[in-house]
Amino acid sequence: MRPRLSTVLVRGPSMAPALRSEDVVLVSWGARPRAGQVVLVRWAHRPEQLSIKRASHLVDGGWHVVGDNPFASTDSEQLGPAEVLGVVRARLWPRPRFRL
Asked: What's the number of domains the chain is made of?
């Protein structure tokens, strides 16, 4: 089964400078992440919240993920391991970019 693709709107400054609030990204749902890739995650303690972060490494219970902006990111340092839902493949708007 091929992963499905959809667009996601970025909210907040945690991934600047790679991604900024209001950017639109293309997510490959169900794709297997690799360390260093930008991913869409869900937190066990905040199941209603989806976040875009950078995959760091596998840990017990999921992935350790971090934001690119250390001054404006809530990530695995505060919330623990995350469940990766998909891999961000490209920024589509406002400035298309395929390497994040």
From this structure: 1
What are the tens digits of pLDDT across the range 11-69? 999 999 999 999 999 999 999 999 999 999 999 989 999 999 999 999 998 999 999 99
Q: How would DSSP label each residue in 80-98? A: --EEEEEEEEEEEESS-BS
CATH of the domain at 17: 2.10.109.10
Q: What is this structure's pTM?
A: 0.93
Which residue's entry shows tokens 């930008």? 38
In a domain, 98, yes or no: no
Position 11, amino acid: R
Domain encompassing residue 37: 4-93
Comparing C-alpha atoms, which of 31, 45, 46 is closest to residue 84?
31
Q: Residue 61, by phi and psi: left (phi above 0), alpha (psi -120 to 50) or beta?
A: left
Within a domain: 100: no
